[in-house]
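Sample entry (47 residues):
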Amino acid sequence: MGDRCVKFVSRLGGTCFDITSASAASSAKLIQYTCGTGTNQQFTRGA
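Predicted structure, serialized as tokens:
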């Protein structure tokens, strides 16, 4: 993961926020899924 990326992990289930199908669309659905290393689970804060 890059220096500016963060990953959100649930304290209860250990799952991560994940963007469905690694979509880049602004309307993409956010789900909880098993943690992995894909960019669909890496987030950056907007300016």
